[in-house]
Amino acid sequence: QDNSFEQFIINYCNEKLQQIFIELTLKEEQEEYIREGIEWTHIEYFNNAIICDLIENNQTGILAMLDEECLRPGTVTDDTFLEKLNQVCATHQHFESRMSKCSRFLNDTSLPHSCFRIQHYAGKVMYQVEGFVDKNNDLLYRDLSQAMWKANHSLIKALFPEGNPAKINLKRPPTAGSQFKASVATLMKNLQTKNPNYIRCIKPNDKKAAHIFNDALVCHQIRYLGLLENVRVRRAGYAFRQAYEPCLERYKMLCKQTWPHWRGPARAGVEVLFNELEIPEEEFSFGRSKIFIRNPRTLFKLEDLRKQRLEDLATLIEKIYRGWKCRTRFLLMKKSQIVIASWYRRYA
């Protein structure tokens, strides 16, 4: 219920993770249809970049205002920090306080004067401004760093590299918010170079007990995790997509014209395959480099047909092998019978 600086930066990290989730799933999903030339109806979804900008903007962001308060001369308190937020963020649609211009639209009159509220992606969160300045000004004094660097223990010395006299920097150490912001930026840069997969965990109840399903709690988590938008985009689009070459290689056994070898472009082979299987045209679409299948049951049908075909091919291979084995044994017995008969006639 009481949220301070720690929860603020945690929620900031959650917003950044949600942003990259949107970019790598919803946005990329729709951009792929455009790249592949697939007819597509654009689905609107909420992009939380505006919330991230409210927090991390270098000029007007909350973290920038907090750092400015920590570094400026004169009397600095949490109240002066809140006053600055009320001036800079007053018109922002996701920022609320008792003194901001958005306050007149608030239905909740219980918002204290020493608090501000941010409308995050998952909902509104109120933060107690008390302690923001002190916690952000979490500085490690140089003399302490130098003393720890002089320790004989190698681990302690490695933990305080800034204490090395050869690397003395007279600049003010970065604030806690700046360090966290830089760490989040590094994390985002690292994730964008990868192809991450997401596992969304839903907590069914707060009691950690079995067989209890709290509908309200689950619905809140579904909205918070952005699953509704993801499902909307997936249902409006195509559930499965694959390049033509691997698709033809996997299912070519289902068509006599493509089995065992197809001589020609992979896309043409896939077209022949789908026409042979009489799959409805509304269930698939041909992109520039991929085949798009709309409904999962079409894919399940292909897999079932492939499984049955593999069983038939296995039976065929087994039949041919058994026939070859029996014929080889028969020819050997026939040859042996001739040798035995010839020797018997010679003896008789």
TrEMBL record:
- Superkingdom of source: Eukaryota
Q: Give the InterPro entries listed for this entry.
A: Kinesin_motor_dom_sf, Myosin_head_motor_dom-like, P-loop_NTPase
Record has Transmembrane as a keyword: no
Looking at the record, the residues that make up the Myosin motor domain are 1-307
- Listed SUPFAM superfamilies: P-loop containing nucleoside triphosphate hydrolases
> Does the keyword ATP-binding belong to this entry?
yes
Cross-referenced PROSITE patterns, in alphabetical order? MYOSIN_MOTOR
CC terms in the record's Gene Ontology section: brush border; cytoplasm; microvillus; myosin complex; plasma membrane
Region described as Actin-binding: spans on this chain: 184-206
The record's similarity note reads: Belongs to the TRAFAC class myosin-kinesin ATPase superfamily. Myosin family.
PANTHER family, per this entry? MYOSIN (PTHR13140), UNCONVENTIONAL MYOSIN-IB (PTHR13140:SF277)
- Protein name, UniProt field: MYO1B protein
- Lineage, please? Eukaryota, Metazoa, Chordata, Craniata, Vertebrata
